[in-house]
Write a structure and sequence with these properties.
This is Wdr-12. Keywords: Nucleus, Repeat, WD repeat. This protein has about 425 residues and is mainly beta. Helices cover about 5% and strands about 45% of the residues. The chain folds into 2 domains: about 90 residues, Ubiquitin-like (UB roll) (Roll), CATH 3.10.20.90; about 325 residues, Methylamine Dehydrogenase, Chain H. The strands form 8 sheets. It has a 5-stranded mixed sheet. Strands 11-12-13-14-18 form a 5-stranded mixed sheet, with no helix packed on it. It has a 4-stranded antiparallel sheet with strand order 6-34-33-32, with no helix packed on it.
Length: about 425
């Protein structure tokens, strides 16, 4: 330790934002190689305070190359084979507040998807149920449409006001059905539409930004496009037997507008393009991520991976896609790339298959991932080798994750829905 205290290295600090941190511009500082994140963070704030009397201390993440500093400089330099004779450039990224445990809710079976709105939490499960809680964790309703596992779901309309009334949800079932259902203010659920067309389990459903179109995919390897508007042209009424009693619920049965076939294995994740409303993406176990033009009903581009996909999430402003695959590394793709590979980065940290990925609402860089290793991790896309935070709490494999309204949700084999705030 005495030797490390006596050895020094030169470092410089720069900001990740357009605003320069006072006192750091063009400054090169000698620091002991034993310095860790805390000491360097304090140093940045001291330099800024000395140059600006109104400076208020801030928490920075310190990025060297593509890795956040999580150990003393001496260890980092040795592990990354840095040259002691050169100035180490450290990027100061606005710090993340650690996610805080908020709720742990019990579900009836393995949790297949989790969702959040300003007033409620929603979870679907392998027993076919949909459970709704308020934001305090009080259960509002739980119901099952059919005795078939819910494999995918999406919120079409958020509740109106502070309750559950007005919630409209699409669920894809293992038996190939898709249901669109609406919740009343009293928590009662009514069917709006049954979407028939898939031959096997529906693994993913995703509604478009204007709420008029839904895309779905599943084990039949087909992407189907549905019209959610009140349009009679795609309504199919199955013939009723003479003595068949009419259902108490009045709903329509619809057939798909378009069926797209280009995958050779199960489709497990879908996203609408963030920049072109007529385009969408589908990810499959066949190791491919396809971009579709839904108006022309054709494939636009194909990204090939080394493994099958499990989940994708597209950033609403940058258009970058985070992908989860059947290994331990989330990956960053740029579908608009015209030079080199679509793959831009792989992120190292999980110890099991990545089951879910979601961009957060914090900024253009942060996302979360869930894994069979029982954890959820928060990442910054600029740091490939070190997650920002590890979020624990599950006792078994985590099957899904969600984010929104300042909350991180995860669900798994332990039937728990864990919620952290950030």
């Amino acid at each position: 330790m005495a030797e490390e205290e006596s050895r020094h290295i030169q470092v410089s600090f720069h900001s990740s934002s357009e605003k320069v941190i006072p006192g750091t511009e063009d400054a090169v500082v000698d620091v002991p190689i034993s310095a860790d994140w805390e000491k360097l963070n304090n140093l940045v704030n001291k330099l800024a305070a000395a140059a600006d009397d109104e400076w208020k201390a801030r928490r920075f993440e310190l990025l060297i190359g593509s890795t956040f500093l999580r150990c003393p400089l001496s260890e980092f330099i040795e592990e990354n084979h840095l040259d002691f004779e050169r100035v180490v450039k450290i990027e100061c990224v606005d710090g993340y507040d650690p996610p805080q445990p908020h709720l742990s809710l019990s579900g009836p079976d393995w949790i297949s998807s989790v969702h959040v709105t300003p007033s409620i939490y929603v979870a679907t499960a392998f027993d076919g149920s949909v459970t709704v809680w308020d934001r305090k964790g009080e259960k509002i309703s739980m119901h099952s449409r059919e005795e078939s596992a819910v494999k995918g779901a999406c919120v079409i309309d958020k509740p109106k006001g502070t309750g559950v009334g007005g919630l409209r949800l699409a669920t894809g079932l293992e038996n190939g059905s898709i249901w669109v259902e609406e919740w009343g203010a009293d928590g009662r659920v009514s069917a709006v539409a049954a979407l028939r067309g898939h031959a096997r389990s529906v693994e993913a459903v995703k509604v478009g930004a204007d709420g008029s179109r839904l895309i779905s995919g599943g084990f039949d390897a087909h992407v189907k496009v549905w019209n959610l508007a009140a349009d009679a042209s795609d309504v199919y009424e199955a013939p009723k037997a003479k003595n068949e009693k009419r259902s108490k619920e009045e709903f329509v049965t619809k057939t798909p507008m378009v069926t797209l076939a280009a995958h050779s294995d199960a489709i497990v994740a879908l996203e609408w393009s963030s920049h072109q409303k007529e385009r969408a993406f589908s990810a499959s176990w066949d190791h491919s991520l396809l971009q579709w033009d839904l108006e022309l009903a054709g494939e636009v581009s194909r990204i090939r991976a080394q493994r099958g996909f499990t989940s994708i999430s597209i950033h609403p402003s940058t258009g970058l896609i985070i992908g989860g695959l059947t290994d331990a590394c989330p990956r960053l793709y740029d579908p608009r790339s015209s030079e080199g590979s679509f793959l831009k980065q792989s992120f190292i940290g999980h110890k099991g298959w990545v089951t879910g990925v979601r961009w957060t609402e914090r900024d253009d860089h942060s996302f979360i991932s869930s894994s069979f290793d029982g954890t959820v991790k928060m990442w910054d896309s600029r740091s490939a080798k070190t997650p920002v935070f590890d979020i624990s709490g599950h006792e078994d494999r985590v099957l899904c994750c969600g984010v929104g309204e300042g909350a991180i949700l995860s669900g798994g084999v332990d039937t728990k829905v864990n919620i952290f705030t950030f």
